[in-house]
Amino acid sequence: MPLDYLLFREHMGTKSSLECFLKGHLWLELCVNNALSVHLANPSALPTDRLTIATKVALCHALGAFRDADVSALRSLNRLRNLLAHRVAAEIEPEALGALREPMADHDDQQY
User: Fold this and answer.
1) Which residue has the higher pLDDT, 69 or 7?
2) Is the confidence at residue 60, as pLDDT, over 60?
3) Percentage of the chain exceeding pLDDT 70
4) Which of 95, 97, 83, 75 is nearest to 28 (CA)?
5) What pLDDT score does 111 carry?
């Protein structure tokens, strides 16, 4: 199932880096949901709306949909999302973004 880049561009044209990050996380969760629907024999039997993204990522990993590096990157992004979503004064720190680069380093040379 191809990624919906039109939907991504439509929702990422925001002014706030926090809003952009949170919307990006939602888009990634949509991608995780799509991966589940592709890799499950009977996706309608699993109520994904009741699962956390961490559980969905673990399930995708168990199904072979995601590599270790993908899982590491998604878990790092989710930790940062949780920090930002649950603290009123939270801001995206450059160090936090730098820490996200390591698990995604093997994606740098790939073209999507």
Assistant:
1) 69
2) yes
3) 73
4) 75
5) 43
If DSSP codes are grouped into helix, strand and coil, which group holds residue 75? helix
Contact status, residue 107 vs residue 68, Cβ threshold 8 Å? no
For residue 44 the two structure tokens come to 């309608």
Place of tokens 């044209």: 13
Please check whether residue 22 is in contact with residue 85, taking contact to mean a CB–CB distance below 8 angstroms.
yes
Examine the pLDDT at 73 and tell me if it is beyond 80: yes
Phi, psi of 90 (to 5 degrees): -70, 145
pTM: 0.74
Block residue for tokens 């999507």: 112
DSSP 30-45: HHHHHHHHHH-SSGGG
Residue 61 φ/ψ region, left for φ over 0, alpha for ψ in the -120 to 50 degree band, beta for the rest:
alpha
Phi/psi of residue 13, each to 5°? -85, 50
According to the model, what pLDDT value does residue 103 have?
Answer: 61
CA distance 91 to 98: 14
Give residue 52's Cα distance to chain centre: 12
